[in-house]
Write a structure and sequence with these properties.
Elements lengths: L1 E4 H4 E4 L12 E3 L5 E3 L13 E4 L3 E3 L4 H4 L4 E3 L5 E4 L5 E4 L7 H9 L1 H10 L10 H6 L1 E4 L2 H40 L19 E4 L4 E4 L3 E4 L5 E4 L16 E4 L9 E2 L6 E3 L1 H6 L10 E4 L7 E4 L7 E2 L3 E5 L6 H8 L2 H9 L11 H5 L2 E4 L2 H37 L7
Length: 411
């Protein structure tokens, strides 16, 4: 196996959208992915935009040192697209020598990003010169070995993708049940029939300005939960990824799944820092909500994060009364819950969800028996979701292990 310079394996491509035949516009993320572009292109001359085709790469060499990553991605999901002319587009010269997918695996390694940061120049932001990028080296095993490596990695990647799809369907099932019972009021009555459509008694509620089942309460969130903020890290303290100390939950760690579990991406605080912020921790089954940045993300804390530290950019909802975590979570992520959160968010560019506004979120309180029935019904779904999330965490660790081994390959 020999080491080759990147520049020996690739060539720049500069194809422009002169006839405006390509209309699919993509952007490049720091996570090395292409995404549909959200840029305002009204009045923009798209003739100068670059065309990128399947199995071609695009990258950004700007701000590499600041971001500690070099955005580079391989187009796989589309046959052709266009992107900003600011991005260099390149392709592999000879796919019998190096597979585009193998090269992308090398670009995915954290070690590649560290080397790119080392070579980046130009002050705080630090841009990477194209020549320095081309002079970076990587091992090139036989094409058969490359195919084997890519197949192993993609098998794990596909399993992760399938697991995420299963989680999404499970989440949707639980949310649909929440809507059927607590929005449409078609929960099972004493005879097991849908309450509202079977003639269940409804009464008008002034606060919500709609009819609700007789006997249900209406209040604000502060009446049924303790709402507490997280804690900013003390000055000069630093997070570590060495699993030294205790986990520190950031907004970046929140996800679209119901449960938040520990994973390899978590940062930790040392024991000295922990003593200063020890009162700002979460307990199993606490519900947390993001209040700064991406506002309105909601997670339930898994037991693997019991007593983890919480960022000041989140609130925790704890010590629930007359409600349970399942009902509260599904309310907060429901269409109405997210609309209420949006309406109670204040500020412009630096928008924030203040505690007093969270406290005033309207909450409909069903009967205790119905809440217990809902909790019991979604219990199996919860268990399955947590199992899948933890499996995906292990699979993600396996991906990292496969990437770390690329530099030690033979053949």
């Amino acid at each position: 196996m020999s080491y080759r310079k990147i520049g020996e394996l690739i060539r720049l491509v500069d194809e422009r959208n002169k006839d405006l035949q390509v209309v699919t516009l993509v952007g490049l993320t720091i996570h090395k992915k292409f995404i549909p572009s959200v840029a305002n292109t009204i009045g923009t001359d798209m003739k100068n935009y670059k065309i990128i085709r399947r199995n071609q790469f695009a990258c950004s060499t700007m701000q590499v040192r600041r971001d500690k990553k070099m955005p580079v991605a391989l187009l796989k999901e589309l046959d052709v697209a266009i992107l900003s002319p600011a991005y260099p587009v390149f392709e592999v010269k000879d796919e019998n020598e190096v597979l585009p997918d193998y090269l992308m695996l090398w670009f995915t390694r954290s070690e590649f990003d560290r080397e790119a940061c080392f070579h980046a120049v130009g002050g705080v932001r630090g841009s990477l010169e194209w020549e320095d990028f081309c002079n970076m080296e990587l091992p090139i095993p036989s094409i058969e070995k490359q195919r084997e490596i890519v197949a192993q990695y993609q098998a794990v990647e596909n399993k992760i993708r399938v697991n995420k799809q299963i989680c999404e369907k499970l989440e949707a099932t639980a949310q649909a049940l929440y809507k059927h019972w607590f929005v449409d009021f078609e929960f099972p009555n004493e005879d097991g029939k849908p309450y509202k459509s079977s003639g269940g008694k409804m009464v008008w509620n002034e606060e919500l300005e709609k009819e609700i089942p007789e006997g249900w309460e209406v209040g604000t969130l502060k009446d049924y939960a303790n709402i507490k903020g997280g804690k900013r890290l003390p000055k000069d303290s630093e997070l570590n990824k060495n699993k030294v100390g205790r986990p520190y939950i950031r907004v970046a760690d929140m996800n679209k799944n119901k449960f938040m579990t520990i994973n390899s991406e978590f940062m930790f605080v040392d024991d000295i820092t922990q003593k200063e912020i020890s009162r700002y921790t979460v307990d199993t089954n606490d519900v947390i909500i993001s209040i700064v940045g991406t506002i309105g993300l909601v997670n339930v804390i898994d037991e693997s994060l019991n007593k983890a530290n919480l960022t000041e950019n989140c609130f925790k909802l704890t010590n629930l009364k007359k409600i349970n975590k399942d009902y509260l979570y599904h309310y907060l992520v429901s269409e109405r819950g997210q609309r209420e959160i949006e309406m109670k968010t204040v500020g412009g560019v630096q928008a924030k969800l203040p505690m007093y506004n969270v406290e005033l979120l309207d909450l409909l309180i069903p009967s205790t028996n119905l809440l217990s029935q809902f909790e019991s019904t979604v219990k199996a779904i919860n268990q399955r979701i947590v199992t899948i999330i933890k499996e995906n965490d292990k699979l993600t660790e396996l991906q990292s292990l496969l990437l770390s081994r690329l530099a030690r390959l033979e053949g």
